[in-house]
Design brief:
The complex is a heterodimer of chains A (591) and B (49).
Chain A: H1 3-31, H2 39-53, H3 63-87, H4 103-114, H5 124-127, H6 130-160, H7 170-196, E1 206-219, E2 225-235, H8 240-249, H9 270-294, H10 298-324, H11 354-367, H12 382-393, H13 404-424, E3 429-430, E4 433-434, H14 437-463, H15 465-469, H16 476-491, H17 506-536, H18 552-576, H19 578-586
Antiparallel strand pairs in A: 1-2, 3-4
Chain B: H1 4-11, H2 15-47
Classes of the chains: A mainly alpha (591), B mainly alpha (49).
């Protein structure tokens, strides 16, 4: 590890910290429908949207109505995405004449983008037309993020409101999140990306002549070898900057190119790299301030922020430390830091980013449910790869996805408050609301669905070699980690991958689609149930026995609950995967 | 303009897959809505206890 590396990490975090308060207060004003500077531009557009769609913006919804509106909206948009993918060969903006996407992959991709996962079992530049990328995938990037923000705000309202049956209006919250927050942010951000060299055009791919033609020998399925001379290279391009902006700001993560943010057309410079990491964290971090403002408990918002920050620094330290170490299997290679080399484990990393920025990006993208990558997580050292995996397994509550991170964290807050209540023998209270058996039942449902999907699907994939193992590139604990990572990423709606697993098979496309849908919607329902139940409750005045939720003690308890729940659930699987791989690597065995 | 021939071609041989994918998607969301209603009923029952 170097001082320069730590400076980059601390500078990044300082930016997030500085931005959190103003953006958080702005979002609170947007969702509480108070006046903002942007009203002159967006209010007429908002009114027009409601007039065209017949939405009554004054209508308040119960939690069930809010949930059903969200589910139906997601179903319809998912089916439209599926149809466009299947028919893209017959639709415009397809200069490469790409074929329609096959059904299982189309379903996987439709589920992936609807759930804000952006898992990609395909190579985007050779599979998706410009129209598919812009009309369906970029569209979902906006609206899946806006839905996440709407849901987080609904939960905050549930905490803040007293004796109310309603949580707001799903359509209004989603529209305001898109118009007031995501759209202006993306316009500015896309222009900044273009200034750094990110491409934005509708041209067919350019063809470049190779300076040195390559001779490639391939073996067909019939066992015959064929030799081919490759003298040209296709330079893929397209409307990248506009997609890149919402990909990061909405914590979506689905790259325009297969190499994602490691591709020089998506992430060309150290400045664009810093912007991309910052944009993943800025809205989730600011939402903690929104929580404090809307519940009139700003210190509580900062206590939640502190818990997220503590877990972030633990993750980034372990990832950076692990990646800065030399690979013990490369005995005779000098891997130390010098003026002419980055040192440490540079496999799968871009030289222009180096170890620190790659470890930081991997931590940030999996703390949040983003999934964009600027280095290949599969090439990380076992303990370096453990960090992204654990970050997702903890529920992506370390700042987390746009909206999803905050509501996931608030479920842990409910559990932490409940445990604190048990310890002192009093009825648990959270900001004056009594936490009762129904709230804890729903919180446990939320917490248990997550490992059930990850470990259940992983177990089935491992037990059925013809389904789960046939497309696996690595044996031993690393192979286990690849499968475990795939289902963790899908259920956590992250979307990053350990790339040694070819997931474009019938089994993986369908089972990962199911994991993504379960991990999104079956967890949102109990969360909204808690919101609805909390909204109905009276506020109890604080007493000497009330557990304060704005102190360092609360932050420590919250971190403890998150770690214990995560560790207890996933430790056996982790010990057979990355931890065993680390021990075997120290003994001189690699996979 | 979408050419009808191309639409037919896209469905050719994959029609059952398309039906299966669409039915499975709809079924999942129906289950999710039923699950929400179940959670609500549990809440109502507990409130009346």
């Amino acid at each position: 590890m170097t001082a320069n590396g730590w400076f980059q990490i601390l500078f990044f975090f300082a930016l997030v910290l500085i931005c959190a308060k103003p953006l958080g207060i702005y979002m609170a004003r947007v969702f509480e429908r108070e006046r903002t500077l942007a009203d002159g531009v967006f209010r007429p557009v908002e009114r027009l949207v409601y007039r065209l769609t017949g939405i009554d913006e004054t209508h308040e919804m119960r939690w069930t109505e809010y949930a059903v509106a969200m589910l139906l909206f997601s179903l319809v948009t998912m089916l439209v995405t599926y149809a466009i993918e299947r028919l893209q060969h017959a639709l415009p903006l397809n200069p490469q004449h790409l074929a329609g996407v096959v059904p299982d992959l189309a379903l996987n991709t439709a589920a992936s983008f609807t759930t804000n996962t952006n898992w990609q079992s395909y190579v985007p530049e050779t599979t998706m037309s410009y129209l598919t990328q812009m009309l369906t995938l970029a569209y979902h990037n906006f609206f899946s993020a806006a839905v996440g923000m709407a849901l987080a705000v609904a939960l905050i309202r549930g905490i803040a409101r007293r004796e109310s049956k309603t949580l707001g209006n799903f359509w209004v919250d989603t529209t305001r999140a898109s118009l007031w927050v995501l759209l202006p942010g993306c316009v500015i951000y896309a222009l900044l990306l273009v200034s750094q060299g990110v491409v934005q055009n509708f041209r067919p791919y350019d063809q470049a002549k190779l300076v040195q033609p390559l001779t490639v020998t391939t073996t067909g399925i019939d066992g015959k070898t064929a030799t081919q001379i490759v003298a040209t290279q296709n330079i893929a391009q397209g409307p990248v900057a506009s997609q890149e902006a919402i990909k990061m700001l909405g914590t979506n993560g689905g790259g325009f190119f297969n190499a994602n943010s490691a591709h020089p057309f998506e992430n060309p410079t150290p400045f664009s790299n810093l912007m991309e990491m910052f944009s993943i964290f800025c809205i989730p971090a600011a939402l903690t301030v929104t929580l404090g403002k809307m519940t009139r408990a700003p210190k509580h918002g900062w206590a939640v922020f502190a818990a997220m920050a503590a877990l972030f620094f633990v993750g980034v330290f372990v990832a950076y430390y692990a990646e800065a170490q030399p690979n013990p299997l490369l005995h005779s290679v000098n891997q130390h830091v010098a003026a002419t080399q980055a040192g440490g484990n540079m496999e799968g990393k871009e030289v222009r980013f180096g170890v620190a920025s790659s470890a930081l990006f991997a931590t940030v993208t999996t703390d949040a449910s983003c999934g964009a990558v600027n280095s290949m997580h599969d090439s990380f050292m076992p303990l370096g790869g453990l960090v992204p995996l654990v970050n997702i397994m903890l529920g992506e509550v370390i700042f987390g996805g746009v909206g999803a991170g905050l509501y996931g964290m608030l479920i842990f807050v409910v559990l932490a408050v409940f445990i604190a209540g048990l310890m002192v023998g009093r009825t648990p209270e959270y900001l004056g609301k009594k936490i009762e058996s129904y709230d804890v039942k729903m919180a446990m449902l939320y917490v248990l669905i997550f490992p059930l999907s990850i470990l259940g699907f992983s177990a089935v994939a491992l037990m059925m070699p013809q389904l789960g193992l046939s497309s696996l590139a690595n044996a031993g604990p690393h192979g286990l980690s690849e499968i475990l990572y795939a289902y963790t990423s899908a259920t956590g709606n992250n979307g990053s991958a350990f790339s040694g697993l070819n997931a474009n098979t019938h089994w993986y496309n369908l089972s990962l689609a199911a994991a993504m849908l379960v991990g999104r919607f079956l967890m949102i329902v109990p969360m909204l149930a808690i919101a609805g139940n909390l909204a109905r409750k009276k506020v109890v005045p604080p007493s000497p026995g009330t557990f304060p939720v704005h102190t360092p003690l609360f932050t420590v308890l919250l971190v403890g609950v998150i770690l214990i729940v995560g560790a207890l659930t996933f430790f056996p699987a982790l010990s057979l995967g990355p931890i065993l791989e680390h021990l075997l690597m120290q003994a001189g065995k690699g996979f | 303009m979408i050419e009808p021939g191309l639409l037919a071609k896209s469905a050719g041989g994959k029609g059952m897959w398309d039906v299966g994918c669409i039915v499975a998607s709809v079924l999942f969301f129906v289950i999710a809505i039923a699950y929400a209603m179940g959670c609500d009923r549990l809440g109502t029952k507990e409130a009346h206890r």
